[in-house]
Design brief:
Elements lengths: L11 H9 L8 H24 L4 H26 L1 H21 L2 H34 L25 H8 L3 H35 L10 H53 L3 H41 L7 H14 L6 E2 L3 E2 L2 H23 L1
Antiparallel strand pairs: 1-2
Helix pairs in contact: 1-7, 2-3, 3-7, 3-8, 4-8, 5-7, 7-8, 7-9, 8-9, 8-10, 8-11, 9-10
Length: about 375
Amino acid sequence: MPTPIEDNPLLSINVKLWKFLSVLLVRDWSRCVALVAPVCLMNAMQFVYLYQQWGDLATFILNTFFAVSIFNALLRTCFVIRNRDKFEALMQELVTLYDNIQATGDEHAKSVLAEATRSTRNISIFNLAASFSDIIVAMGYPLFRDQRIHPFGVALPGIDVTRSPLYEILYVAQLPSPFTLSSMYMPYVSLFASFAMFGKAALQILQNNLRNLCENMQHKSEPELFDTLRANIAYHARIAKYVNDFNELVTYMVLVEFLLFSCVICSLLFCINITNSAAEKMSIVMYIGTMLYVLFTYYWQANGILEMSLLVSDAAYEMQWYNCSQRFKRTLLIFITRTQRPLQIRVGKMSPMTMEVFQSLLNTSYSYFTLLYNLYND
């Protein structure tokens, strides 16, 4: 009997959370709307507040970060809901491959899978805890200010939201934000890491199988060796389809976040140089760190898939192919040629997600910051 998606240890933490919120697996639209609608309303009020704060540059930039982050969380959640069938199909494929590896009895494969599982669970727990802590800090920040402000700056046209009792009502309405926003924002990052780390683990297991394919070949017939090679080629094709499906799901969202985060990081760097508040400087450093961590998680994990896929051809060449039949050698040569084309997660189906692209994003953000800072000083 196949393992339910929510019980797979690679996925369980984030899938169970999204299942409770009806983002995945459960089609409870009333609960889903109850999650998304209040955040949509708050985000709209944030953009009204930004319009009113246009003259105060530091306040405008800092609240732009909050507005863009919440908009990004909404965008991610709505994207997953709209494509939930595709996400669930990808998760089911991961679970099937995971169960097949566990059923083989290969101790090396099990140890690789166990390490990937341990790492993904640690990442998931850390992401949720860090996100929750960040938002708790943001919720408490207004308590240390002399004037009345909300944790997330909001406004209504023609209404003073700092007057009682509206101020208190809006403040209380934002109190669920640590749970709501963490549940919307971080599971996507954690699932991205889970999908990528399983892909890397599967490729690592394939490499070991290829290296050891011709061991004890004197006890195997030529048809047995050839059938084993064909099985490994089919397994590689299945991993390639898994990575391609993964790429199809995330490529455009990654592009949107590439553009958003580049602009926001540039703005926050500028803001930290013009604000005089030590508390704001500390908050900005924390926010920049959070965005860099999310981006680093994306690009590090995607880069790992690319590098691990290129090692498959090396592993195939390292087997004792020279003692095999001509049919085996010809098939292996075709397979090696095919595996020299890397498996990639791409930014908007254009550029592969590598650490070089991550570095270029940072360089671009810093270049725009220096330009903006010089224009401001002039």
